[in-house]
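Peptidase M23
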Amino acid sequence: MKSISTLTMAVFAASPALAHGGVHIHPHGTEVPLLLLGTGLIAVAAVLAYKR
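Tokens:
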């Protein structure tokens, strides 16, 4: 499970660099849902860390 979480976070961290280096991997107009998804993932990670 830890490796899946690490991979997921690495993809999220790398996506802005990949999206604006000449290749677009995100459609425009979906910034708000992506922001909410990212914030939700951070909240879930915080809750899991707090429970440990």
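The mean pLDDT is 75.
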